[in-house]
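Model it.
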Amino acid sequence: MTTIANRYEFALLFDVENGNPNGDPDAGNMPRFDPETGHGLVTDVCLKRKIRNHVALSKEGAEGFNIYIQEKAVLNQNHALAYKALELKPEAKKLPKGEDAKRVTDWMCANFFDIRTFGAVMTTDVNCGQVRGPVQLAFAKSVDPVVSQEVSITRMAVTNEKDLEKERTMGRKHIVPYGLYLAKGFVSAALAEKTDFSEDDLQMLWDALINMFENDRSAARGVMSSRKLFVFKHQEKLGNAPAHKLFELIDVQRKEGSQGPARSFADYQVTVGPAPAGVELIEML
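Modeled.
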């Protein structure tokens, strides 16, 4: 597989309808938001989780596409696989000496998609070093301020027989009636050389960004959809324009005649200015 030779930036527009895109466990699982502006937030970790889940489903069993960070994963056991494959004996918290240290780290990159994509700190008891990944994401932020609505729910069943005559259990869930979010991401060709992040991996990333909500449905998240994916491809490995200048080309405004709070993607108009010399704009969605 060919390692990527170009720098990229990308912008993903996604929305939520009557759901909680990313609850904050320190705030009763309320949707995350900026308290100064009211704009909704979705963390980079949340987006990476969805990318990992999509890759795990679409590449299940495929060589080189294992997922390192997943539910109930035991990281030391994952690290031990590298030592076993390379016929090395691990020492507690120590990397092997010389070239073997690179071999262990390279094995982890080759076998785990999310390590060669996002990087990982693998300096646990079974030490596999650390890797800085070529793909990074910032927090997604809603285009407009969002309103967090608390909805009461009831459960008709009871846990114990003694509770049959009592009032049914009351619960609450938090939703955003509607929110359109913009996430920004970066792909470094220079760092891709360190992890062997390939053109095939890059295509897998684009596919995940477009489809990651399709097999991640739940009552709590309502209806979430990827709406637009803009990719800026640089001619040079180190880039041809500052990332912030490229992101500023994307303009999201309320459509003329749209009134009241936005309640669908149809309430917005998205335009993108021409890319500067040396940068190709690719609209993937």
